[in-house]
Amino acid sequence: MSDTKCEIAEAGDDGKELIVKVQGAISIKVVILISAVLIMLTGCFGPLHTAAGKGDIVKVRELVAQGADVNAKDRDGYTPLSWAAGYGRLDIAQFLIEKDADVNDNGRDGWTPLMSAVTKGNFPVAKLLIEKGADVEMAIAGLERYGSSNPQALAGGNWLIQYKTSLASQKPAPGETPVLRSDTRDTRSATPVVKSDVDVLPFTSAKKDKNAYAIVIGIETYRQKLPSVDYAIADANIMTKYLTEVMGYPEENVVTLRNEYATKSDIEKYFEKWLLNNIEKDSFVFIYFPGHGAPNAKTGDAYLVPYDGDPSFIAETGYSLKRMYDVLGRLPAKEVIVALDSCFTGAGGRSVIAKGSRPLVMNLQTAGVLAANMTVLSASSGEQTSSTYDEKGHGLFTYFLLKGIRNEDVVRSDGSLKVDDLYSYLKPQVERIARKQYNNEQTPQLIEPRK
Description:
Blueprint: E1 5-11, E2 17-23, E3 28-33, H1 34-40, H2 47-54, H3 57-65, H4 80-86, H5 90-98, H6 113-119, H7 123-131, H8 136-146, H9 151-168, E4 212-218, H10 232-245, E5 254-258, H11 264-278, E6 284-290, E7 293-295, E8 302-304, H12 314-317, E9 319-320, H13 321-329, E10 335-341, E11 374-378, E12 388-389, E13 394-395, H14 396-407, H15 419-438, E14 445-447
Parallel strand pairs: 4-5, 4-6, 6-10, 10-11
Antiparallel strand pairs: 1-2, 2-3, 7-8, 8-9, 11-14, 12-13
């Protein structure tokens, strides 16, 4: 690293003070008011660097619109993108890259934005940089130079090596579109990977809420060799990204179960133990399931089909909506939202039925009693099937669910959803594409507590 480096960081909850750290032969820390800092540090960094470090996306956009250079250098040769990476400003990093910031630009000590991100533990930003072309080998080599004397550099280099290894294990088959994934646990998919507009996250993101919890269950292939649920893994992966990087859910508060990690016992554990152990009265809960649903031909009840589920013994191997609603209804949460990209008739699409049984007409409005704090979004009505949207690489319902979150201003500042607005957007969109492209009737349902 260079002998002298100026850094800026927020100090205190009110954001009215800045800490200036001058690192060199003598290390000192001075806490002063913002106005004094800006006067004192003229020439050390520009206003775009300051806004990027503070996380002021409004100011960043304003400065860029006024002609600020996104690749401008501070005194040590660092760009605003390096500042955004070092301070974990994901939305600002996305915006700067969109405006042609160089992901591989380095300071005079060879320090790249990717190195800044991983040494500070800002892994969502690191993953974004890698997806946008950051040179992983260059970053690893750079961190190795400092690893012997800098534990953060050593830890960052090790993370990059592990992440590089995980990416190598996900290389696509010949003819398949390569996509870098930001998660590594069981992302196997039976369907080709298709990149769509909703796979690019929006620039804005909600503040992290330590009381927001989510369970995402994506099942594409089943132990019983049931028909594949096309794109269910892609659906689950991208929903997890939206929750953690857009809607303010901490990564440690989001459980994502895929394929063989989504057995009935796994679902029971997380619904009936993990949630009950964590949820408090001011918590938000989000449940998302892309996979097969199934009816019980004897009782007419609707079931989620776990990885080890068997439609012929659905009462014993499935997880009923009644049971799920009962468990969620006992949570002292402020709000519970359930999104089901599945169907329950047994007539095909994202549903199955016991061999020899006839498809049923399900009344999802009476599938269970909803608590006053619960809302359910279902991909289709009780007599319909749920389609995939092949050209977008997602379930049809999931695609417009994500598109609504991305483009329609339905995420509040606290990360909660304006469910009515989201439903008003996605319902006509799903109906239109299902009818136009698949000659199918698919009407998403908004199910709310009875009054």
